[in-house]
């Protein structure tokens, strides 16, 4: 009889060693161990061992998802007779977190065919999958939830509220929420977060205030959702009230997620100093905290500061994620910082960061704004999936760089790929037609936008068409288009037509538009200059001089142009007619002199004849 305890001890030891191996080996070695487990019969007699095997497999998140799918099927069909509900839940959980959440729904159907009853853990996992599938209705499972007596389970009901809200049905979520007899803080938070995610932050804040009035104590997740709502509405006063409310609880200094949400809220409200103060006071900062600060500076147009914060983040040995890098690339694009943008691209490749659609689009946008079309096309071709924003970035970028035909070619390719254009896409394509003088193509696109895709043109689209027609000399057609606009034409549209009048020397129309613009924007120096140019084209020297004199009398100066230049990785800006101080001039001349002396010395060294050395 003493043999049995020894046998069981050995068996437990084997199981422990197998579990250790599974968590430390490669996927290929893992498959070999699994085969050994099956052939030894362990999978049939040790349910715990098999469950741990599957769990270990899921944790790996092998990049070859299709291979992982096939291997899971093998485990499911050949390892367990019959598979337990816990094992099915593991499979459903895995696919609910993957890029193929619809597979979790197929697994649920398979589980039902095997006559297994779902438990309280099954439906929350399925509902999480539904949250990622915007075209599916989570209420399809409601009958099953009631059938299995889980409709009163708070965990299941809260998951249903969250799934309905996240799948674009906040009204249905509110209906389920209102019928819930036990509304705990999780249910309230799901409702608040659902409103914010669906673009109704005001309703989210109302929900938060109602929760407070009913005596439900908010937790960290609730406060994060409420801060997100305040930031979306730019309600800094509510954000500050939430800040004070949470400080009084004595926990704000210890919660990195609330601190990050505060930084994000203050930045969206334009209170960068408050955001920086919260950030500096945080004892612990993670990648989300840094990303909020970087993104906030970019949103406020303070791109130099965003890059400096990113530099500090790297010095702090924090690995940026794709959201951080997207904001940094946007800053580089705005500054024209090509060298720094290329460094970020190299960092992405060097650290094997997944180039998803959002990050890839930011990289393309950076390259096209820096004039590097070939690099942008290379990134575009490398992307595994190309969404609408990716196509739009290429179309608009090529138009911006004067490649009208290339831009329209990408537009045609996008249509062939089945991606439907939006208003921004058409704006890029019409801009290409305007820059390239492609009148017929522009007319066709403008008509298709309204008639085929049922998109109402905005002021920007009309502006492109007016500019296109004006450049081509079709001034009467441009005037007619302006008169047919459903909205009030903006000064920029009249300005485009005024510029065309200067080019085509139409004095009567140009004088009328010029005087109109001066009345609309009496402090805008550009309209005075264009109106003066109209008269100069017709040798009306006195009128042109009178306009210049009027500008001086009103104290209107031309807005100086600002240029950016990147030198040795540093961004420098200078303004037209800008003067340097004496010390700046001396420093610059000293630098130039040292560079000249160094070049002369190097030139002399390079021209030494070896035969003269002896």
UniProtKB/TrEMBL annotation:
PPR repeats: 184-218, 255-285, 286-320, 387-421, 458-492
Gene Ontology MF annotations: RNA binding
InterPro entries recorded: E_motif (IPR046848), PPR_At4g14850-like_plant (IPR046960), PPR_rpt (IPR002885), TPR-like_helical_dom_sf (IPR011990)
Record GO biological process: RNA modification
Alphabetical list of Pfam families matching this protein: E_motif, PPR, PPR_2
Superkingdom as given in the UniProt entry: Eukaryota
Alphabetically ordered keywords of this record: Repeat
The keyword Repeat appears for this protein: yes
UniProt KW Repeat keyword: yes
PANTHER family hit by this protein: PENTATRICOPEPTIDE REPEAT-CONTAINING PROTEIN
The name this protein goes by in its record: Chlororespiratory reduction 4
């Amino acid at each position: 009889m003493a043999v049995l305890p020894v046998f069981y001890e050995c068996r437990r030891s084997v199981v422990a060693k197998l579990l250790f191996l599974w968590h430390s080996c490669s996927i290929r070695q893992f498959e070999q161990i699994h085969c050994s487990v099956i052939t030894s019969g362990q999978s049939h007699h040790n349910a715990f061992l098999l469950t741990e095997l599957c769990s270990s497999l899921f944790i790996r998140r092998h990049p070859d998802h299709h291979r992982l799918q096939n291997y899971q099927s093998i485990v499911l069909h050949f390892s367990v007779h019959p598979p337990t509900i816990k094992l099915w839940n593991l499979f459903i959980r895995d696919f609910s977190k993957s890029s193929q959440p619809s597979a979790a729904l197929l697994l649920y159907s398979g589980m039902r065919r095997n006559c297994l009853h779902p438990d309280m853990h099954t439906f929350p996992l399925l509902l999480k999958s539904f949250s990622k599938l915007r075209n599916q209705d989570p209420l399809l499972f409601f009958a099953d939830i009631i059938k299995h007596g889980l409709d009163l389970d708070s965990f299941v009901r809260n998951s249903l509220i969250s799934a309905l809200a996240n799948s674009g049905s906040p009204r249905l979520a509110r209906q389920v929420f209102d019928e819930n007899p036990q509304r705990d803080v999780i249910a309230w938070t799901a409702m608040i977060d659902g409103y914010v995610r669906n673009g109704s932050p005001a309703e989210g804040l109302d929900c938060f205030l109602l929760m407070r009035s009913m005596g439900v104590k908010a937790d960290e997740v609730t406060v994060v959702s409420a801060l997100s709502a305040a930031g979306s509405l730019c309600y800094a006063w509510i954000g500050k009230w939430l800040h004070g409310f949470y400080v009084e609880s004595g926990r704000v200094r210890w919660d990195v997620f609330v601190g990050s949400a505060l930084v994000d809220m203050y930045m969206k409200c334009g209170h960068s100093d408050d955001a920086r103060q919260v950030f500096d006071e945080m004892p612990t900062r993670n990648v989300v905290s840094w990303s909020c600060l970087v993104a906030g500076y970019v949103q406020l147009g303070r791109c130099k500061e965003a890059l400096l914060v990113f530099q500090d983040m790297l010095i702090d040995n924090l690995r940026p994620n794709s959201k951080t890098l997207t904001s940094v690339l946007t800053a580089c694009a705005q500054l024209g910082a090509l060298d720094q943008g290329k460094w970020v691209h190299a960092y992405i490749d060097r650290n094997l960061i997944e180039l998803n659609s959002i990050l890839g689009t930011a990289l393309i946008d950076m390259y096209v704004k820096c004039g590097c079309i070939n690099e942008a096309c290379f990134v575009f071709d490398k992307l595994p999936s190309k969404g609408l924003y990716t196509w739009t970035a290429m179309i608009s970028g090529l138009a911006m760089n004067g490649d009208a035909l290339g831009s329209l070619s990408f537009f045609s390719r996008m249509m062939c790929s089945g991606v439907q254009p939006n208003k921004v896409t058409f704006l890029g394509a019409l801009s290409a037609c305007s820059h390239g003088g492609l009148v017929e193509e522009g007319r066709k696109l403008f008509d298709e936008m309204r008639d085929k895709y049922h998109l109402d043109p905005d002021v920007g689209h009309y502006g492109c068409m007016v500019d296109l027609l004006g450049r081509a000399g079709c001034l009467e057609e441009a005037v007619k288009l302006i008169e047919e606009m459903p909205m009030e034409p903006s000064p920029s549209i009249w300005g485009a037509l005024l510029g065309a009048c200067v080019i085509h020397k139409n004095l009567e129309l140009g004088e009328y538009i010029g005087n109109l613009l001066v009345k609309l924007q009496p402090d805008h120096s550009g309209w005075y200059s264009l109106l003066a140019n109209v008269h100069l084209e017709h040798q009306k020297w006195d009128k042109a001089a009178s306009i210049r004199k009027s500008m001086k009398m009103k104290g209107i100066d031309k807005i100086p142009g600002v240029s950016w230049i990147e030198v040795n990785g540093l961004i420098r800006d200078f303004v037209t007619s800008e003067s340097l101080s004496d010390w700046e001039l001396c420093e610059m001349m000293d630098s130039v002199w040292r560079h000249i002396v160094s070049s002369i010395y190097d030139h002399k060294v390079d021209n030494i004849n070896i035969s003269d050395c002896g």
